[in-house]
Structure formats: structure tokens, C-alpha cells
Amino acid sequence: DVKVTQSSRYLVKRTGEKVFLECVQDMDHENMFWYRQDPGLGLRLIYFSYDVKMKEKGDIPEGYSVSREKKERFSLILESASTNQTSMYLCASSSISGDNQPQHFGDGTRLSIL
Amino acid sequence: RKEVEQDPGPFNVPEGATVAFNCTYSNSASQSFFWYRQDCRKEPKLLMSVYSSGNEDGRFTAQLNRASQYISLLIRDSKLSDSATYLCVVNMIGSYQKVTFGTGTKLQVIP
């Protein structure tokens, strides 16, 4: 089974802090993704990475950055946290080999910015 | 028009009933399709892929209609444990995956 592990289930930070969310997958997947999920808006893609040190902006990258130094790890960084970044953050990974490869999600991190 | 649209529901159905959800997509170049299940305050989990010829997994049947650009999920003999939000997912396969999630359809199975 694919295992995607996010470092924290719940996190509380203050406005202006730099926040790191970590994600590790154990299936040697090439693709990794960061989403946020808010009521009524569904999942929105923040950034994704298709290889080590490679990254692409998703639909809502403003206020975020990412790092992928190793294939198994994809980090999301909130440079200066703001209250509108309070959300559920979900990491996912997928393989590029073969057709019809779904994404597999971590448990999610509920982040509150005070 | 949204890229992927779902009726948010909720669909309230009695145990044992059959229920079906549709999901429409706007991009005719979409190539692969999935249904995910998401329980309250949990992560989405893959329920099943959707194949061109249609596919079945126990009480769940998924179908794809490319001409009308929609996918469907049919649940037979609903169980209380089927209560969840069902997300449809549309992929455009290329060098980098372009994946779009629907906002989900909420199902409540009542005793």
C-alpha cells in the first residue's frame, strides 16, 4: 500500500510566522502535490513537483513556496503566515508509469493561523 | 463553466436503496477519471478508477460517457457506512499531470 505521511495532523501558528509542512511518500513516486481544502471550494492545487528540485505552480501559489530536495519528500512553506491561510492542507503523490495513475493522499494537516 | 461539476447534495437515501451521482467535465481532452470517497475531516481515498467500458467493484459501478462528457457512480444496496462525500477527479495525462477535483457530492444513508 502507498503510504503518504504528513508531519502534523494539527498545527497552530501565529500571523507572520514562517510555517513548514512536510510530506513523505514511500512508493518512489515521481509526482507530488500540495492542496488546500476549504468548505465549498473543494481541493485547490497550490504547487506540484514532477521530479527532484522541479516544481510547478498550481492554481493558488501566492503566499506559498515548496521544496523538493529528495524524491520522497515535498515540503510546503508559508513564508509569512496569514489568517486566510487557515485551512486543511493535503499532500498527495502519484506515479507516472502506466496509464490511469491515481493520486494517494496523506492524512492532512489542519492549520490554524491566529 | 467549472472544469468539473458535481451536484453537492446532500443525497439522503434509506439503507438498501440504489443511488447514482453524475459528474460533468468540460475539457474533451481529459483522459482518465476516478471516484474518491472522503469522510468528514479525513483525507480523500481512492474508491475506483473509471474505465471507458465501465467497471464494477462489488456494489459500486462507474461509467464514462465521453460523448456527453460525464462520469457516473452507482451504489447499490446502500449501507450506513457509505455515508461520505464522493469526489470525482479528472486527469489530463501529459508530461505533468493536470488533475481537477470536483467539489463533491454528499451522501447520507439513513436507517
Summarize the structure in words.
The complex is a heterodimer of chains A (about 110) and B (about 110). Chain A is an all-beta fold and about 110 residues long. Chain A is built from no helices and eleven strands. Chain A has strands spanning about 5, 10-15, 20-25, 30-40, 40-50, 55, 65-70, 75-80, 85-95, 105, 110-114. In chain A, a hairpin with a 6-residue loop joins strand 5 (about 40-50) and strand 6 (about 55). Chain A is globular, with a radius of gyration of 13 Å. Chain B is globular, with a radius of gyration of 14 Å. In chain B, the strands form two sheets. In chain B, strands 2, 4, 5, 9, 10 and 11 form a six-stranded mixed β-sheet that branches. The model of chain B has no long low-confidence stretch (mean pLDDT about 90). Chain B has strands spanning about 5, 10-15, 20-25, 30-40, 45-50, 55, 60-65, 70-75, 85-90, 100, 105-110. Classes of the chains: A mainly beta (about 110), B mainly beta (about 110). The interface of A and B includes residues 41, 48, 99, 102 and 110 of A.
